[in-house]
Amino acid sequence: MGEVRDMGAVRAVYDLSPVPHALGGVSRYMMSLAGALRAAAPDNGVELTLMDVPAAHPGVPGPGTDCLRLPTPFYMKVPLLRRIPIRLGWEKRSRGRRIADIAGRPDIIHHSGVQPHAPDGAVSVVTVYDLSALQHPEWHTEDTVMYAERERDMLLSGAYAAVISSWTGVELSRSLGLPEWRIRVIGGAADGVFTPGEPSPSILGGYGLKLGEYLLHVGNFVPRKNIPFLVDVYRRSRRAGVSMPLVMVTSGGWGGISVEEGDGVRILRKVDDRHMPHLYRGARALLCPSGYEGLGLPVLEALACGTPVIASDSSALPETLGGHGQLVTERDGDAWLAAIDGLRRAERTDELRRMAGSAPRRTWRDTAVELCDYYGSIAER
Asked: What's CA 347's distance to the chain center, in Å?
């Protein structure tokens, strides 16, 4: 018997193919939203399919979640035979048709990253994290710039945008001239594991850390994060009497950003995700001096844990912090030095902790419900 479809529901495909190549916050955003969408869709008028296209990441494991996988054509699996199809782009050009065949001709295909292939008749929705690769290509790899240009072309050709902050939405409208009705702020959230509480002494001890006796930075070593600036300011603070180490959690990077450990600087690479709430809870404060953020997930995660936050006043960070921490001028070294020095005073740390604790909590389900509503409004047009 054929599949029975709820004719009142919007049929949407959420493509997770970019996850294997994404780092840090972007990957966490995709996977967190996908999980929330799976749970929220049935109650919000959406028939959802999570999809992976293995041919988009050959030789690299998929997103690691239960999703429909688009079969790779047989000719791509034969070493000698596949050379011609690869050169002619057969597999890529046939993706839209093959997605329609296995996903039941969706109304919407949501590109969580740039994999620009959609079935005929389906409306494309693109998650837009930020426009840094278009506005500052010198910060990025050639591949990232290429993907950003492809994303731009999709948007200029009629795709809808699901942006992660109001700031990103404004930038998108200003830079590309997209009308407001093709932009919806979906936002983001901290995962449910990020809550206030006491950190595990054994987990902190495993990293050689003590409760309240270290500063924390979470983010990849990429140009827009102002990593050299942060390290320089921190080392100035050491000379001024700050003894707490600066613990930098990273999963990779690019752009030739290198940091030497020592003189209080500690680098933790590829930390177990289960340990992150404990690292936030145990920190004296999170430091986020980024020069460009479309949202700033570490800020949301720190606030959810009740951890004091000091962030730069650039891009989306004031919106994300929402007055629940300290904003410091992005490149003002003396101002950052004063902010870090202030953490030596218990009354200042307590004040920042109270500010963090008063931040409203938004969940990934909230984000997913907003996205389902967006799908519905698009389908009605």
From this structure: 33
Nearest to 325 by CA among 283, 294, 365: 283
pTM of the model: 0.91
CB-based contact 122:106 (threshold 8 Å) = yes
Let me know: does 160 contact 148? Beta carbons within 8 Å.
no
The segment(s) of the chain belonging to CATH 3.40.50.2000 are 10-189+363-379, 201-357
3 state SS of 340: helix
User: From the CB of residue 276, how many other CB atoms can be counted at a distance below 10 Å?
Assistant: 20
CB proximity list for 292: less than 8 A, separation 6 or greater: 130, 132, 136, 139, 224, 314, 315
8 Å CB contact between 298 and 24: no
Helix, strand and coil percent figures for the chain, each rounded to 5: 45, 15, 40
Tell which residue, 14, 43, 374, 25, has the closest CA to residue 190: 25
Identify which of 76, 63, 154 has the alpha carbon closest to the alpha carbon of residue 115. Answer: 154
Average pLDDT of the segment spanning 231-247: 97
* CA 365 from centroid of its chain's CA atoms: 16
Q: State the residue for tokens 């070294």.
A: 333
Cβ proximity of 301 and 190 under 8 Å: yes
Classify domain 10-189+363-379 at the CATH class level. alpha beta
Beta strands in 145-254 (DSSP E): 160-163, 183-185, 215-218, 246-250
**What is 201-357's CATH topology?**
Rossmann fold (3.40.50)
Instruction: For 330-354, write each residue's pLDDT tens digit.
Output: 999 999 999 999 999 999 999 999 9
Say which residues have a Cβ less than 8 Å from residue 152's Cβ, sequence separation at least 6: 134, 176
**Exposure string over 224-236, b if 16+ CB within 10 A, otherwise e:** bbbbebbbebbbb
Q: What is the per-residue pLDDT for 239?
A: 96
